[in-house]
Design goal:
- The complex is a heterotrimer of chains A (390), B (165) and C (103).
- Helices cover 67% and strands 0% of the residues of chain A.
- Chain A is built from 14 helices and no strands.
- Chain A has 390 residues and is mainly α.
- Chain A starts with a helix and ends in a 14-residue tail after the last helix.
- By secondary structure, chain C is an all-alpha fold.
- Chain C is 76% helix and 0% strand.
- Chain C has three helices and no strands.
- The longest helix of chain C has 31 residues.
- At the B-C interface, helix 1, helix 2, helix 3, helix 4 and helix 5 of B face helix 1, helix 2 and helix 3 of C.
């Protein structure tokens, strides 16, 4: 019974595809998968915008939007109508073709990246041998859209924001890929489907990579690098409203701005989906006795958890300056990812037992403290004092 | 030839021609990106998936961005181009046409292209990794050394000079 | 025209376009773009011969192209750094003007 519920979407798709003649079946199958991905993740995008605004509002001791619909839940509909009916202003000196293509160059690769993430058992849209490489390749293609947006607007602030954003994205790509490479090394395959299969629970032991020292460090590194890749707070210097007035998005209005917004959030979902696949066990339950819950329910539960974490971090931490950002990437995260790689190797070659937990824990925590201290040395920080409002 | 090969080939050639003939340098760089993407699609058609994805990751994701950064940092997009039908220009195009003619003549007269196509080879990532670790280990180490040297060298070359000039 | 011949002619065309650009254009960055196009044409040639030639299990073509892509990236990085430094010195990226020779 639970298996039928688990595979309900797969059987539904097979039933619809079988309805068509044989020569059309490949095309219909692909169309159904694409439509499902776009529908589900665009719906999740709408939900996330309202969750984010309400969540940030509560963190900042105010209510979020609460006028449209019960508890403000129809706010995304209002936002969508606004975006579609707003006048689309393009500066006269702007490069029209590049200005038009930049939002497309963002949205298409991020939806492509969603295709390799396994959402449930047998529910990865594309199952290729080098799936992880495909994901990072299309992730790298999104940087070009940032440049196109910034340069085509013929606006100095826009260009400056774009160059900062690209520098940030390139710098954080290296720790991102290195933490993923650690997982690939331990599993032995680049295919996300096999990586999820390697994290199956084993009786009372959870098989997730999160519950190993190298997996824990790798997860934190991956999540930090993912926040920076998506230009989200605390790494949103290129687009913070109080900084550079929306950076490379300045000259975009109406639907194109909504497309950029959509692209950013879908990119966030894609990279969270990959974090779940690599470190949080994909669609597996933590313990074997919980496997009766459908696989896609586990995946979306974890995805919503990660989204809540991102919203929490955004509301809590202050923004990083550009030089702090770059120092953090090159002087802390890159050495930590390399140390993590070595730790994973040590974990593999020591036998199972308490010894390897201790050794790997020290191997991960030691450089963390040493590197962290060394980054603070050059600054003369005074003791922190608090002033409370009376 | 299959329709997909014709379309992708046409796109690649169009991108390459645009990259070499447009006036605005940033447009040239973006057309070059289209050519790289077309080439990646051709690699995928030739069943070399790893190479196709590596092409997108390295060329579109890194080399194209390097080129646009260089264009921005040297501010050469405002160069007013003189008419390109100079004598040097015509010689250049003529040499290229002669080279293309020679290559096509060689291709059509060679017996190697008439062999039957072997079945689709399996180039899994595991096989590539095995080959890299056994037969091609020396080139792998050398290219690691070379990439490190290129990284350090590029940073040192482009660092601004310390003394005030 | 066999598939292999089709890919080889396409690669020859790309090479010719890259060569024409590298010989004709005066901007140093465009010369570098031409060189990258020529490298890519050679890569396409390798992969076409790997797919349609003898003994594809040896993966020789794929290996060649992997190393070639890595080398091209390193060469582009160093080449562009040189162009930036030359621009700082000569204040132009025009290769005809980057000459201190007399006569």
């Amino acid at each position: 019974m639970s298996n039928a519920l688990d595979q309900i979407f797969v059987t539904l798709k097979h039933a619809i595809v079988a309805w068509f003649p044989a020569s059309w079946q490949g095309l219909v199958s692909a169309l159904i998968t694409v439509a499902a991905i776009i529908a589900v993740f665009a719906g999740l995008f709408a939900l996330t915008t309202i969750l984010e605004r309400k969540g940030l509002g509560r963190i900042q001791n105010r209510l979020g939007p609460n006028r449209v619909g019960p508890f403000g839940l129809l706010q995304p509909v209002a936002d969508g109508l606004k975006a579609m009916t707003k006048e689309d202003i393009v500066p006269r000196a702007a490069d029209h073709i590049v200005h038009f293509l930049a939002p497309l160059a963002l949205v298409v690769p991020v939806f492509l990246a969603l295709a390799v993430v396994p959402i449930g058992r047998n529910m990865a849209a594309i199952d290729i041998d080098a799936g992880l490489l495909f994901f990072f390749a299309v992730g790298a293609a999104t940087e070009l859209s940032v440049f196109m947006a910034g340069w085509s607007s013929r606006n100095k602030y826009s260009l400056l924001g774009a160059m900062r954003a690209i520098a940030q994205m390139i710098s954080y790509e290296v720790p991102l890929i290195l933490s993923a490479v650690t997982v690939v090394m331990m599993v032995g395959s680049l295919s996300p489907v096999k990586i999820v299969a390697a994290q199956a629970p084993d009786g009372w032991m959870p098989g997730w990579h999160l519950f190993t020292p190298w997996g824990f460090a790798g997860f934190l590194l991956f999540l930090t690098a993912a926040t920076a890749e998506s230009n989200r707070s605390p790494f949103d210097l290129p687009e913070g409203e109080s900084e550079i007035i929306a950076g490379y998005y300045i000259e975009y209005s109406g639907f194109k701005f909504a497309l950029f917004f959509l692209g950013e959030y879908i990119g966030l979902f894609a990279v969270s989906g990959l974090a779940i696949t690599l470190f949080l066990g994909g669609w597996h339950a933590p313990f074997a006795f919980l496997e009766w819950v459908p696989s896609y329910a586990w995946f979306f539960g974890k995805l919503l958890g990660l989204i809540a974490l991102f919203i929490w971090i955004r509301g809590t931490l202050p923004r990083l300056r550009m030089d702090q950002l770059m120092n953090f990437a090159w002087k802390f995260m890159l050495p930590m990812s390399l140390v993590n790689l070595v730790t994973a190797g040590v974990w593999h070659f020591m036998g199972a037992g308490v010894a390897r937990w201790l050794v790997c824990g020290v191997l991960v925590a030691g450089p963390y403290f040493v590197l962290g201290r060394s980054l603070f040395e050059g600054q003369k920080l005074s003791k922190r004092t608090y002033r409370y409002a009376d | 030839m299959t329709a997909s090969f014709a379309i992708i080939g046409l796109l690649t050639i169009a991108g390459a021609t645009a990259a070499m003939s447009l006036r605005n340098l940033v447009h040239c760089a973006l057309a070059l990106t289209v050519a790289f993407a077309g080439l990646a699609a051709l690699y995928l058609q030739l069943d070399a998936q790893f190479v196709g994805f590596a092409q997108i990751l390295v060329y579109v994701g890194a080399v194209a961005i390097l080129i646009v950064f260089a264009v921005l940092l040297t501010r050469s997009s405002e160069t007013p181009g003189a008419s390109r039908l100079t004598r040097a220009g015509i010689w250049g195009v003529a040499i290229a046409v002669v080279v293309f003619g020679l290559l096509t003549a060689m291709i059509s007269s060679s017996p190697a292209v008439r062999h039957p196509a072997p079945p689709i080879p399996a180039a899994t990532v595991r096989d590539i990794g095995n080959q890299l670790m056994t037969k091609y280990i020396l080139p792998l180490e050398i290219i690691g050394l070379l990439l490190t040297a290129a990284l350090i060298g590029a940073v040192i070359i482009a660092m601004p000079e310390k003394e005030a000039e | 025209m066999t598939p292999l011949a089709g890919y080889l002619v396409l690669s020859a065309m790309l090479f010719a376009i890259g060569l024409a650009g590298a010989l004709t254009r005066r901007n140093a960055i465009l010369v570098l773009i031409g060189i990258e196009l020529m490298l890519n044409a050679a890569n396409l040639n390798f992969i076409a011969f790997w797919r349609y030639g003898a003994n594809p299990e040896a993966l020789t073509g794929v290996m060649f192209v992997i190393f070639s892509i890595g080398l091209a990236a390193a060469e582009a990085a160093v080449g562009l750094a040189l162009i930036i430094v030359a621009y700082r010195h000569f204040r132009t990226t025009d290769v005809d003007k980057m000459s201190s020779m007399k006569g």
